[in-house]
Design a protein that fits this description.
195 residues; alpha/beta; Rossmann fold; 42% helix; binds guanosine-5'-monophosphate
């Protein structure tokens, strides 16, 4: 039986730190990883599809699931907007013999870690500096000055939790950060996992 059974990988980072790119890299490199599809009450953006990026739920449905104790963790990541990891989603991925990758916020990450202990590996993707983070957000050109300020304040707050993670991967050079993240995963899941 695989040693990676019922383990989870948690990736968290401030917005703009490169988490999505690193997550995509890991999913492509290791076919035995599977993206854990969270539930959220936010509306789909652009080409997002229900059941692919997220399970898009109404507030009533989400609250119903909270009462049913269906979530491993959930948070109001933004005011009035819920995000949560469904226990059934992890069970689905484990049943496939795969390891779920949770791309979730810092507080959710710490909650999962507290519940799953050494069955989880929490990785914090650290931006090189707040200045670089600001530049990256400016380069996206989708943000207003105001929203950049909000994100920077949030990033500083999130970075203050980074010492509670199992591993910190600094994303100065993307390729180096991807390779470092891959190495810590192999360390945690064992060499069989790469086969
Ligand atoms: P977005 O709306 O941009 O897709 O995600 C906003 C934030 O919510 C990101 O930091 C993302 O990692 C986080 N998030 C996504 N799913 C979950 C979840 O299931 N639980 C928690 N706690 N955060 C989540």
């Amino acid at each position: 039986m695989s040693t990676s059974l019922q383990k989870v990988i948690i990736l968290a980072a401030p917005s703009g730190a490169g988490k999505t790119t690193i997550t995509q890299y890991l999913l492509k490199r290791f076919p035995r990883l599977a993206f854990s599809i969270s539930a959220t009450t936010r509306a789909p953006r652009g080409a997002e599809q229900d059941g692919v990026e997220y399970h898009f739920l109404s507030l009533a449905k989400f609250e119903g699931l909270i009462h049913e104790n269906a979530f491993l963790e959930y948070e109001q990541v933004y005011e009035g907007v819920y995000y949560g990891t469904l226990k059934s989603e992890l069970a689905r991925i484990w049943a496939l013999g795969k390891v779920p990758v949770l791309d979730i916020d810092v507080k959710g990450a710490i909650q999962v870690q507290q519940q799953l202990g050494d069955k989880s590996l929490s990785v914090f993707i650290m931006p090189p500096s707040v200045e670089t983070l600001k530049e990256r957000l400016l380069n996206r050109q989708t943000e207003t000055e105001e929203s950049i300020k909000t994100r920077i304040d949030k990033a500083e707050y999130e970075i203050s939790f980074s010492n509670q993670f199992n591993v910190i991967v600094k994303n100065e050079i993307l390729e180096t950060a991807c390779a470092a993240a891959a190495d810590v995963l192999i360390d945690f899941l064992g060499p069989d996992f790469t086969k």
